[in-house]
Amino acid sequence: xxxxxxxxxxxxxxxxxxxxxxxxxxxxxxxxxxxxxxxxxxxxxxxxxxxxxxxxxxxxxxxxxxxxxxxxxxxxxxxxxxxxxxxxxxxxxxxxxxxxxxxxxxxxxxxxxxxxxxxxxxxxxxxxxxxxxxxxxxxxxxxxxxxxxxxxxxxxxxxxxxxxxxxxxxxxxxxxxxxxxxxxxxxxxxxxxxxxxxxxxxxxxxxxxxxxxxxxxxxxxxxxxxxxxxxxxxxxxxxxxxxxxxxxxxxxxxxxxxxxxxxxxxxxxxxxxxxxxxxxxxxxxxxxxxxxxxxxxxxxxxxxxxxxxxxxxxxxxxxxxxxxxxxxxxxxxxxxxxxxxxxxxxxxxxxxxxxxxxxxxxxxxxxxxxxxxxxxxxxxxxxxxxxxxxxxxxxxxxxxxxxxxxxxxxxxxxxxxxxxxxxxxxxxxxxxxxxxxxxxxxxxxxxxxxxxxxxxxxx
Length: 459
Known about the structure:
Layout: H1 5-8, E1 11-13, H2 17-35, E2 43-50, H3 51-54, H4 61-69, H5 79-92, E3 94-95, E4 103-104, H6 107-110, E5 111-114, E6 124-131, E7 137-147, E8 150-153, H7 154-168, H8 178-188, H9 192-200, H10 206-229, H11 244-254, H12 265-281, E9 285-287, H13 297-308, H14 317-334, H15 339-342, H16 348-362, H17 367-379, H18 397-416, H19 426-439
Parallel strand pairs: 2-5
Antiparallel strand pairs: 1-9, 2-6, 3-4, 6-7, 7-8
Helix pairs in contact: 2-4, 9-14, 10-12, 11-12, 12-13, 12-18, 13-16, 13-18, 14-16, 16-17, 16-18, 17-18, 17-19
């Protein structure tokens, strides 16, 4: 399956790509379906199933659906406008999407959290329906939010492999696996980033590609800066204080004093990642990398490289992102990037593998060393559960991104100490992740029914 770098890295809003962005995009798709329908709709309904039901409130899924049905999309999200829209909808019990008549929609009645009937296609399922003036359903569609902001209908999910294969074979380097990627790199003499770039140029011009990569990194680094500059309490009820601002201020004060131990560099990596994920937890604008819950790992690793590694240059950030996207695409094709499907190993684990690969590439690693870096990072996230306290993308998610960045840097460094030859291939590690996720109890896959989610202080 060919996935563009701009599908792996997408501009969106927090706190979750699968629970916030995905449902909002599903609502937009249903409105488009309604615009092309011969039926005259009077009202709308939505039911959320599986993980979307269990942790939907903590992940702002209800807000995302309401706003999505009003015509708001993640890339055009405005916080003040969204709040005004929510107030209007709850007062009027109507949504007013563009190019459609006002539609009855009372969130208290028409948005249902169905905990008892999971859908067959994916743990993140939702059903959207349009009704006539008598309340009878005249149009309905089932959507699955499959992770990273990707949305599929039930039919698309069933037929996905055929379409994906056709799209993959249209590019010059159609690698399905890491092994194929390495063979193509050896035969072509190109780096992973160069092959990924050639694939991207099948669908987009070089100027647009470079501008898009600059835009992605710009959004990432601006998110870091906002997070470092902002203090206060995160929403959601845990009363969790933002920590990145104070940690960053202390680290800046210590610079040049020659009093800090070498391991303080880990605090810099962590604070960059925590800044992003605090912004995500607050519902701010982030870049999926490959998901919102893991959005801090890749930008934190890039920022660490640019700010702390001699010889780093912004001109090579595109190379980093292309390499990371190549690894992310392989993981998504052969396993998952969805916490609801495979636990946090699929989110922070995948992000750490992507970041390790990108860093190894810009530090001069061979394709074999890059693949080794990704494998090391992913291997040491295997089995990681997704057990968010109160269904919020805060505990343990924010700190977990910091540790994911640290592991990425360690994995890249370790791989560069060798020649790329290693015992466990990345493909085997990805398969182990898929199997582990398949065997993992549903309690530990973004349902907040087990683990840390049920072991919280009583106060």
